[in-house]
Amino acid sequence: MKRCAALRTLSNEHHHGLVLAKRAQKAAGTDAAGKVWRQIQARFAAEMEPHFQAEEMGLLPALERVGETELVRRTHADHAELRRMMREGGMQAMFGFAELLIQHIRFEERELFETAQQKIPAAELDALTN
Predict the structure, then answer these.
(1) How many CB atoms neighbour CB 107 within 10 A?
(2) What is the pTM of this model?
(3) 32 sits in which H/E element
């Protein structure tokens, strides 16, 4: 399904998340891992954390209102786990972070955003994201 205008910015931000995940995958276990991880942590704070907050303050409550509690629960759980991994660091967290972020973005694109477009009226979606 084509992404509606109201969710396009959030959807486009997923590209940045995939770039972070790929960098983490490539660097995990290398000599540059520590340096790359610090860069990823900084970009996560600057780019992904605001993205998570926008979803948590707007989109997720709207989905909860239309009865999509399981999708909302999974999104909150993924966000919490990704944040935990950011705090912990280390090689295991770096690889796990990359894998979970890729899975999470796929979930949001294929399920969360599709459901939002189907169940939340367009005017409400517009108001949430503007």
Answers:
(1) 15
(2) 0.92
(3) none
